[in-house]
Structure formats: C-alpha cells, structure tokens
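In the current project phase, work has continued on tokenised descriptions of protein folds. One protein thus recorded appears below exactly as we store it.

——
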Amino acid sequence: MPHRLISVSSPKYGEVPLKLVQESEDSDLTILEALQPFGSIRFTITNHKKFRLWHATYRITKPTRLIITINRQYLGFLFALKNNPNYNLKGLSPMSIQEHQCDIFYTPSINFEYNFDSETYIVCGFNFRTNSFIKWSNLFDPLNTLISHISENTAYRLKPSPINTTPRILVPLSHILQCEFTGNKKTKFLSFKTTELTFYILQNTISSNDHSKLGSAEFELMTQVKDHLLRNLTNPGTIHQIALNFGLNDFKLKTYFKRAFGTSIYAFILAERLQKAQALITDTNTPLKQVAEIAGYSDLSAFSNAFHNKFGYRPSTLRKKLEK
C-alpha cells in the first residue's frame, strides 16, 4: 500500500509526519516511523495476494489521542498484541479490547481515533481483499449480514463485544508474525496459516453467538470437556467414559457439546488431529507415515484422504510445496 495514503494526526500535536524507513522494490513491504514529543510510532505493512498485514507499535510517553486515517476500506481482523487499546472507528461504536482479544469489522474507509495512556501498545490487523473474504460465507452463514453491509458500503462490526482468542487462534497468528521463510515458500506458508487463522476466528466467533442455547454452567462444563479433548487427543476415551467423567449421560454430553461448539465430539477430535498433523508437516520434517499415526490413522491413504477433505490439498502436496 502506498505510504502516502496514510495520515496520522493529534489534536494536541497536529499532523504527525511519517518517515519512510523501508519500501521493497515490489512494494510488498513498507515500514514507516515517526518520533514525536508524545512518543514514537512504527507501522509495518505487508501486501499479500489475499490480504494486507498491519503491524503497529505505539510507544507512548505522554497520554495522547491519535487519529489514523487511510482512504481505503478495511475488512477483517484487528488484534491487541500488547496492552489494551481504546478506539473509536468511524461509523461504529467505541471499542476497548484487551490484550489478545480481537475485533472483526468492515468500514468503507479507515478512521481510527486511539486514546493512549503512557504505555506501549502493539496491534496487528488483517485487511482482506473482498473476494477472498466473502468466500467464507459458504461455511459461516452469519457472514451474509456482513457481506450485505459491504455491498451497501456501510460500516458493520460482526460482534458488538471483543472476541476472546484461543490457543488455536494464537498459534497460527504467532507463526504468521514470526515467519522466517522468504520468496515463494513464504507466500505459500502465509496462505496456509492465514486460512487456518481465519477459520478458527470465525468458528470461535460464530459459535460464541450460539452460547445462549446453553446456560452458563453448561457452557462452562463443555469448555472443560473441550480442554480435556485437546489434552488427550490421542486417547480421549469413549463418549460414555467422557460423560461419566463430567457427570453427564451420553445424550446430554453430545447435545451440549454440539450446541456449544457447533460440531460433534468425534468431528472435533478429527479436526484437531488433522490440524496437529498440518502443523507437524509445516513446522517439522516428521515423516508422513509417522504424522498419520500421530493423527490416529494406521493407513497413510486414509489419512491422506481425510487431510484432503479438510484442507483441500494432500499432505504430500503440502510437504513438497514447502520443500521448494
């Protein structure tokens, strides 16, 4: 994104000039900095085929209000990585997100008003290209409301309150921010990880809108069940054993879990095992036969078919692409 599109100002200090520190030849990476009496700002903006990744660090030494303006639409996520930023976004209600929480919204143009204390704040955001994001509505029906606002060019927030993240969200986010690959391998790696990140954010957000189907006590109990499954993916026990461990009968366990997370226990375990398998293929050199066994498959062909059904490509294809 051309850095000239970005402007920063403060009611107290006026316009904040941004210094271009780095801009790659193909314009896929731009780094901007500013040093002011109230502190310093650093923007890192990386362009990818399906999205733009924003990473902003605000080291504030004097409480101040900053206005960030970009004449470009925003469709996607905003994460608080350090501290708890408070901001107003034109066309939407004020928002305060805690560290590691997330905001999902669309706005025709970017106009942030941040209210900063004397702290260091780090935020990052994924601004998706419209066509790549709206495809997710095939999996998550509630996104259709968001899409209608995009077509009407009106601001919309998917959920009025901040979205709590989970380890399944934070792990791919960390992989994306700390990616050490370059060139084509980096492009493919980020594509895989961003798809993973987006799926889990939307799954977490959409399913959290359905928690009203359960009482708070039942949902808390199902959260404990889910944690149990994640800790014991290789040997979680039978449905009956799990139900007994949590003081339920089989029917209530299966019904409550489906209402809480929108999937069956069996499908959840399968998805998590395959997710773990993808991470092993991406991050290690573990042989595919061993990865299949870790995922619970004695037959490599059955594992490959299940992996393909979930991710749209086979484990051997992923391994070959990453080795190029």
Q: What stands out?
A: Residues 211-323 form a domain with the Arc Repressor Mutant, subunit A fold (CATH 1.10.10.60). The chain has two domains: 3-166, 211-323. The chain has eleven helices and 15 strands. The radius of gyration is 22 Å.
